[in-house]
Prior knowledge:
- There is one protein chain.
- The chain has helices at residues 2-10, 13-22, 52-57, 65-81, 85-104, 109-130, 134-155, 159-164, 182-191, 197-211, 250-258, 293-296, 301-315, 329-337, 348-358, 420-440, 449-464, 478-501, 505-519, 526-529, 545-571; strands spanning 36-39, 46-49, 132-133, 224-230, 238-241, 243-248, 263-268, 320-323, 341-343, 375-387, 393-400, 408-414, 442-445, 542-544.
- It is of the alpha+beta class.
- The protein has a domain at 2-132 and 444-580: GroEL-like equatorial domain (GROEL, domain 1).
- The strands form four sheets. The chain has a six-stranded mixed β-sheet.
- β10 (375-387) and β11 form a beta hairpin.
- α2 (13-22) runs antiparallel to α5 (85-104).
- It starts with a helix and ends in a 16-residue tail after the last helix.
Amino acid sequence: MLGSTILNHRQHVGLQQLFTLAAVAHSTLGPHENYKFIQDEATGESVLVGSCLRILENLDLSTCAVGQLVHETVRAHHEVYRTGSEYLLFFAGAWSRAALSCLQQGIPVFRIVEGMTKGVDLCADICAKSRISFDALCASTRKQVIEATSDTQVEKGKRQIKLSRYFCHNKPERIPVLESSLPDNALLANGLSHGCDDAMQLVIQASCMQSRDNLGSAFDVTKVTTCVLAGFPEHHSQVCPGCVVLLNGEQTSVAHRLKDKPLDVVLIRGDLSHTYRHLGFKRPAGVQRVANQSDLLNLSDEEEWLDKVLALLSHLEVDLVIVSGRVSEALLQLCSRRRILVVGKVKASVLKEMANAVGAVPVTYATQLSKHCVGKGIHVSIWREIQSHDGAALIAANIYAGGSTRLVTAVITSSVHGKLQALEDRFWSCAYRVHHALKDKAVLPGAGVTEMLCIHHLIKKADAESPRNGTGGSNPYLGVVLHLMADNFTEYLSVVMANSTGISQVKARTAVKQKLQNFNDISADFSQLNLDSDIREPSKVFDNLTVKQESWKKALDLVLLVLQTDAEIITGVDQSEAGDHAGLEFL
Length: 587
């Protein structure tokens, strides 16, 4: 029987692969990112990565079905939330190991599914109860900051008045009054920085710049774009109004000719090429082309398309073409020779904002352009002339439409070209943490407080469900499953502490266990937990409510999918119907 159990456990290769693959998330957890070099054995090329998503992107997962599933899950989460991928992957690995432990103890698969689902539901309920309202948070923090600022200003250079008797007659500085919600955004952002202080400062600058236009004070992440520049130190990173893009080759001379003039612009959604077709397009079947004059001149389809587009742009007297997708290299060169600037790969949300600002009508194909599609009054300025890492001449041009938009660009710089992607990812992670916090209108207590709450209540529920207490419910294994999940949260806190402080994971786990013993004595009043001694005023640490809940949900979905797939391969029985097969013993 023992040999059979071990053999069956080994057959759950999917869970083992998931646990092994998720180990890449360990080094990326915590406020201090550890960069990694990934080298391609075939080409010898290497890349510098700082997140689990970038690691997965650079691994060859073509022969591993679980690996592809993990990559797609993490990528889908990242596309929506832009943060929390490491958290998701860690718990996918931790809960896959918990599921393997349950299988070793002979717990049926459908009981594991039931118990883990119950555990995540319990944690989600804890989040709902411990959430901190944004309004309440801002009111409390604003009061503390005003009091601290007042004390500092009253004391202040007094000294200035005293010195002015001898050197000058400057008036004391006025105490600033926090009248708008802008400082609230900044204070919230600081609590969500998670160690990425430089990146979060750029986010705060972007929020300030958007609010300065008197178009509302909420941070709008859809109107933020990034531009990465190699060759400058990281402290040169900054935020500027408008949309900054890199131009090279013939584009630079065109930009110099057009700079600081009101321009006519057209906007194209999608790629600007003769082969591009919008999503869902199907070429009509059975259609034959009749010979025409262009065929007689032996012009190719691309050449015919180029002639048509160039003629249309010239007729409309267009100066600038902004495209959300890729641009045909042939068209780019031809337009440059005609002093028409073409800019590609611009965010769709930026395109929409520009359309509203200058009265342009975006189209899917260039051949759809007409006079009423042309926008007027947009400007291009030369923001900076630089050289690329390979020595080519570049310019960073700023496309802006006056003060009528809230478009801002975070220019991210680094002397190390390989770090640029990681720095850009870090900026977007910070930006979306603020975005999700404002959208949720609430945050969770950070610095491990939420996880400790989960551990406390999972253990409490597990002990209450213990059969020896005579209170076991319909699932006699629920207590075992919940204890394993609580241990996974403890492991998470230990890894984060080890990565943050440099101590060993053994010492970190001991420290976490000691902290949990003290934590268990705290009252169930969640408002008191927010004043835990590890959280200093006024610099609190926060986590995103929705992101954390969705990370748990996706991690659990991933584990249960692999678990049940493994089980069906081994037994040939759908595990969701396991309860109907009372005469069978399931793995």
